[in-house]
Amino acid sequence: MDSEYFLESIRIGDNIGIGKIYAKLYPKVKKHILQRDGSEADAKDIMQKALIQLSTRAQDTNFSITSSFDGYFIVICKNLWIREAKKQKLKVTNDTSMHLVSDDVDVAMSSFEQEKWELFKEKLQEISENCRELLQLFFKKTSYKEIASLKNYASENTVKQRIFKCKSKLKDLIQSDRRYVDLKHF
What we know:
77% of the residues lie in helices and 0% in strands. It has nine helices and no strands. Helix 1 crosses helix 3 and helix 3 (40-58) packs across helix 5 (103-124).
């Protein structure tokens, strides 16, 4: 099954294609959520919200998935679960000030976060390979000392300077994109 088939199935509401998406990806979604203190019911809910979110975005004829459908869909589910887990934590720790967010607002916010993530990933691909590798190590919380050793830099200070320059370059690329303004004011 390829990405276009799955995307078209979601776009037109083809139950057979959507069933194939469930069969292929639900076990991964379920595993991810169960490993992060969720339940099977949570996994089903997240899967449904992801399909709704993707269906909404797929109605735009200019929308396409440039990576694998599986990877894209799993990232949507992970982002949705992060939001859901935060809401659950707020309910437990601060139930007096917690307000319930409607599913429509929740799906819209998740879609917004997905667009920000896509812009970030796109711009990450536009910086040099060396910067990309440095930032990926930095995002994985690899120590400066370890990065210096892996990349054969003279010192941790050199690593800090290079990471700063790479982050600045990435930030400039993101902020110079017209979509950034729209996402910033959402």
